[in-house]
Amino acid sequence: MNQTPRANRPHIALYGNRNAGKSSLLNAIIGQEISLVSNIKGTTTDPVSKAMELIPFGPVVFIDTAGLDDDGELGNIRVNRSIKILQRTDFALYVIDVNDFNETSYKEAVLLFKRFHIPYLTVFNKMDSLNSIQLNSFKERYKNAYFVSAKDGDNILELKNAIIKGIESEENEPPIVGDLLPYNSTVVLVVPVDSEAPKGRIILPQVQVIRDCLDHGIKSYVVRDTELKDALNDLKSVDLVITDSQAFKKVDEIVPDNIPLTSFSILYARYKGDLFKLVEGVNAIESLKEGSRILISESCTHNHSHEDIGRVKIPKGLVKHFKHDFNFTFRMGHDFPDDVSEYDLIIHCGSCMINPKTMRTRIKLCEEQRVPITNYGVVLAYLTGILDRSLEIFHFLN
Ligand code: SF4
Questions:
Q1: Domain's final residue, options 267, 283, 314
Q2: Which of 203, 278, 298, 301 is the best mutation target for the ligand 1 pocket, counting ligand atoms within 8 Å of the beta carbon and taking the most?
Q3: Of the four listed, 6, 48, 190, 293, which is most buried by Cβ atoms within 10 Å?
Q4: Is any ligand 1 atom within 6 A of the Cβ of residue 267?
Q5: Residue of the nearest CA to atom 6 in ligand 1?
């Protein structure tokens, strides 16, 4: 379980004003001290995120955020960081100190949860400090809220069960390839092992596609591009070839027309984002002009091979396609701008290291600001003229 990548764990974030008891509540829920607790307002200055087991649900990421009422120059930076966390939050807890309830802040937070389509629970903490009349009056007004005491552990178990129920009802992880092919199909995965490949391992999308094939009884054969031709000859029938986007052109030439072909990145466009929107976004390429502003967004900083695609191959491919230059901006990790309106096109990486919520929020932000967004695999397929072929496998889906 500890091996479950962060990107595949539901992200549960705690919001609320300073000193609402978010950190002590988190410690009480998980039964260990992961967040620093004190009575001093603003002890949590930056979001603290921790991958862990929420028993009996399984692996999750908890994020303890700084108070939403923080003030001053630094405080505003912290608040913005907490708000940024909304983009990757699958489930939220809004924590309130029953002795210091600010209804306006609460309503503002609820609006934000609604804006980002985040299911949430309202949690009144420190119920131990109220008498029964006061408590009942709160309960009367906030019928769906949870009343807990992180200090005494009162109602923590009920809250934990409600969180699990909430994330379970949201859990609807689609297969990566399992719904595209019937049981017992044959898939060949093409993984070039060149100087750009990470040493001694294969990357996450490839690992996850193999696991998805195993889960769905699909036979998967992993080969380098250099052995692909022999592998296709060895196998009696092949239902699908999935390649690393970097080898798209070469693999397209090797794979006969009667065998469907797609890429890991295109599968991820559907799995983590929205394939339809990302394909729609690539159509904007033809309306780009010299100097158009293109944001290239990579969700992690460590994969040189992907860096090479984003920083070198895609810009070069675009310049070659149009025979003129563009104005490229590169952003990494969680540094995705809230305001994307200055760009003419966003090209996103395959997003294997971020959770689907983050990617879908980014797509939504672009949609709201009418800025087309696409991803590496879709662009590379487009530029090599094989986008239609790489989408054929999805045609029978709605
Ligand atoms: S850059 Fe994107 S696709 Fe590449 S490894 Fe990082 S998260 Fe995955």
A1: 267
A2: 298
A3: 190
A4: no
A5: 300
pLDDT score, position 1: 43
Place of tokens 């096109």: 345
Mean pLDDT, the chain, integer:
87
Whether 349 lines ligand 1, by a CB cut-off of 6 Å, is yes
55: domain CATH number is 3.40.50.300
Atom of ligand 1 nearest to the CA of 350: 3
Residues 6+ away with beta carbon under 8 Å from 227: none
User: Would you say the CB of residue 78 lies under 6 angstroms from ligand 1?
Assistant: no
Residue 397 belongs to a domain: no
Question: In whole angstroms, what is the distance from residue 113 CA to residue 257 CA?
Answer: 47
Q: How many domains does the chain have?
A: 3
Q: Are residues 126 and 212 in the same domain?
A: no
% of the chain residues with pLDDT over 90: 56
* Tens digits of residue pLDDT in 102-120: 999 999 999 989 888 889 9
CA proximity to 153, closest of 126, 120, 121 = 126
Q: Is the CB of 245 under 6 A from ligand 1?
A: no
Tokens of 298: 């990579």
Is 160 in the same domain as 32? Answer: yes
Q: What is the mean pLDDT of the segment spanning 241-256?
A: 94
Q: Are residues 85 and 230 in the same domain?
A: no
368 and 331 together in one domain: yes
Residue 338, helix vs strand vs coil: coil
Ligand 1 centre and the CA of 330: distance in Å? Answer: 14
| Phi, psi at 63, each rounded to 5° | -125, 120
